[in-house]
Specification:
- This is alcohol dehydrogenase (NADP(+)).
- The chain has ten helices and 17 strands.
- It has 361 residues and is an alpha/beta fold.
- The chain folds into two domains: 6-163 and 302-357, Quinone Oxidoreductase, Chain A, domain 1 (Alpha-Beta Complex), CATH 3.90.180.10; 167-298, NAD(P)-binding Rossmann-like Domain (Rossmann fold, 3-Layer(aba) Sandwich).
- Strand 13, helix 7 (259-265) and strand 14 (266-274) form a beta-alpha-beta unit.
- The chain is globular.
- The protein binds zinc ion (2 copies).
- One zinc ion binds at residues 46, 48, 68, 95, 163-164.
- Residues 99-100, 103, 105-106, 114, 116 line the site of one zinc ion (ZN).
């Protein structure tokens, strides 16, 4: 049974075979009158995809299809949808596909923090159906979580904005990143490279931090004003005492981040915010005394409105994130996951050529 009853994707059948994905078919989620069906054209590859198929967070459903940076074309609109979207529109879906939409958090634009959060893949809806992601022919999503894509952003450059991009944009925006602010970005990978671009476009002065100097040239090319190789300079924090307003930690693990040093760099009232989602067993180490006047927190994804705001920032400033493309399919997904596992990507992957792998009717 092809679309609309069944979707086809590139899925992982068990966590010990995370690096041997297969072509799979699976039942589509039941169509709700508020749902929109999207024929997928491009999907970004996010660190969460790898954490999920490697079982770092929770068990996975059978034939797990990940991918939550989806760009595609609207092919069906539910009868009760209120959105302005039309058949044929180019749209995006990020890491969240549902929340209750009525609680206080949802009302104030904090949908990612709602207790009824459903992520794009590997989370059950109320009826028990476990969501499936974007390495697939189609996705079926509540209209609230479908956003239009501005014309001047290419699909492969738009996809990574929908999860990775908004995850770093949201804490920058919410904490006042802008002209006159000193912003530190720690960890220059997929997330960190976007954070440099956005913080600069928002008008801030940017310090890029990485352990070694091998990211220096890229960081400066991306627009960073300063670069610090933290494992190569003794007492690097001494030159930055009480200097930074925000430090955004974009590393994939907090284990090697010496938070005590960053705390010394913070202005009073400054904020250290992590967007890292490490292995579930990882713990923070901090010396409690140093925390005087400094805030530390985690940030979740961004809301649909923040995705729209980020797309506008990128469109208005013609920001080009750095993306490598791979064709979707068993081979391309295997390469994306295994290279991401080694950190071998500059700086995000987007899967393309969906029409070849999933021929259009
Ligand atoms: Zn809610
Ligand atoms: Zn993600």
């Amino acid at each position: 049974m092809p679309y609309p009853e069944e979707f086809t994707g590139i899925g992982v059948t068990s966590i010990d075979k995370w690096d041997s994905p297969e072509r799979v078919t699976y039942e589509a989620k039941k169509f709700d009158p508020h749902d929109i069906d999207i024929q997928i054209d491009v999907c970004g590859v996010c660190g969460s995809d790898l954490h999920t198929v490697q079982g770092h967070w929770r068990a996975i459903r059978e034939s797990m299809v990940v991918g939550h940076e989806i760009i595609g074309t609207v092919v069906k609109i539910g009868s009760e949808c209120n959105s302005d979207l039309k058949i044929g529109d180019r749209v995006g879906v990020g890491a969240q596909v549902l929340s209750c939409l009525s609680c206080e958090l949802c009302q104030e634009g904090n949908e990612p923090y709602c207790a009824e959060f459903v992520s794009c893949y590997n989370r059950p809806y109320k009826d028990g159906y476990v969501s499936q992601g974007g390495y697939a022919s189609h996705v079926r999503v509540h209209e609230h979580f479908v956003v239009p894509i501005p014309e001047n952003i290419e699909s492969e450059l738009a996809a990574p904005l929908l999860c990775g991009g908004v995850t770093v944009y949201s804490p920058l925006k919410r904490n006042g990143c802008g002209p006159g602010k000193n912003i530190g970005i720690v960890g220059i990978g997929g997330l960190g490279h976007m954070a440099i671009l956005f913080a600069k476009a928002m008008g801030a002065e940017v310090w890029a931090f990485s352990r070694k100097s091998n990211k220096r040239n890229d960081s400066l090319k991306l627009g960073a004003d300063h670069y610090i190789a933290t494992s190569e300079v003794n007492d690097w924090e001494q030159s930055l005492i009480h200097k930074l307003d925000i430090v955004l930690v974009c590393a994939s693990s907090l284990e090697h981040i010496d938070l005590d040093k960053y705390i010394k760099c913070m202005k009073i009232g400054g904020k250290i915010i992590s967007v890292c989602v490490p292995h579930r067993d990882e713990k923070l180490t901090l010396s409690g005394f140093g925390l005087m006047g400094v805030h530390i927190s985690n940030s979740s994804l961004g809301s649909p409105q923040e995705i729209r705001d980020l797309l506008k920032l990128v469109s208005d400033n013609d920001i080009k994130i750095w993306v490598e493309t791979l064709p979707v399919g068993v081979k391309g997904v295997t390469e994306a996951l295994t290279r991401l596992d080694k950190g071998d990507v500059r700086y995000r992957f987007s899967l393309i050529d969906y029409d070849k792998e999933f021929p259009r009717e």
